[in-house]
């Protein structure tokens, strides 16, 4: 299945992108440390966003198949850029936090963690990007 995304450069490091199937739009701006105003997601911010939302989506798919409700589960992705040898994403540290109400046995926890680490975005990242995923339960200390 192919999905077309189109984008238009608006000048001053701003772009507007349109999702072909839905017509939904997002805007991007370069980050302040790279000449932009930081008024919107940067393109590399969207990579971090894609990783986080992909992990949550995969967790949702797997948990639904096993009648486990993960509503309220959150993800935080911390993106770190590096400058050498070229400016690029160096690290995407991801923390998945289950609500205190979610109780998982060891088998389900293992199944979910494996699925998250095999989400399509995580699997698409260049191997030079450090992309750990940590799982915590809000009801327990990390």
Overview of this protein structure:
- By secondary structure, the protein is an alpha+beta fold.
- It folds into two domains: 30 residues, no CATH class; 95 residues, K homology (KH) domain (GMP Synthetase, Chain A, domain 3).
- The strands form two sheets. A three-stranded antiparallel beta sheet has the order 1-2-3, with no helix packed on it.
- This is Putative redox protein.
- Pfam families: OsmC (PF02566).
Describe this protein with a few key phrases.
alpha+beta, 3-stranded antiparallel sheet, 3-stranded mixed sheet, 3 helices, 28% helix, globular
CATH fold-type name of the largest domain: GMP Synthetase, Chain A, domain 3
Major beta-sheet overview: 3 strands, antiparallel
Average pLDDT, all residues: 95
The CATH superfamily label of the largest domain reads: K homology (KH) domain
Based on Cα principal axes, name the global outline: globular
- The share of residues in extended strands comes to 25-35%
Helix content: 25-40%
The strand line-up of the biggest sheet is 1-2-3
* CATH architecture descriptor text of the largest domain: 2-Layer Sandwich
Please report the number of helical segments.
Answer: 3
**Whole-number count of domains:** 2
Assign the structural class, choosing from mainly alpha, mainly beta, alpha/beta, alpha+beta, or little secondary structure. alpha+beta
In total, the number of strands is 6
Radius of gyration: 17 Å
Distance between the termini: 39 Å
Low-confidence stretches: none
What's the helix-strand series?
A: EEEHEEHHE
> Class of the largest domain in CATH?
Alpha Beta
Protein name: Putative redox protein
Pfam family, one: OsmC
Organism: Aporhodopirellula rubra
């Amino acid at each position: 299945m192919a999905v077309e995304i189109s984008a238009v450069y608006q000048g001053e490091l701003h772009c507007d992108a349109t999702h072909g199937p839905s017509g939904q739009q997002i805007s991007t701006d370069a980050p302040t440390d790279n000449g932009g105003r930081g008024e919107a997601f940067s393109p590399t911010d969207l990579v971090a966003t894609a990783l986080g939302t992909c992990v949550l989506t995969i967790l949702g798919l797997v948990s639904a198949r096993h009648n486990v409700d993960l509503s309220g589960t959150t993800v935080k992705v911390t993106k770190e850029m590096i400058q050498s040898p070229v400016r690029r994403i160096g690290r995407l540290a991801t923390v998945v936090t289950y609500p205190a109400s979610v109780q998982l046995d060891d088998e389900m926890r293992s199944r979910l963690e494996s699925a998250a680490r095999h989400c399509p975005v995580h699997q698409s990242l260049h191997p030079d990007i450090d992309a750990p995923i940590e799982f915590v339960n809000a009801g327990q200390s990390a």
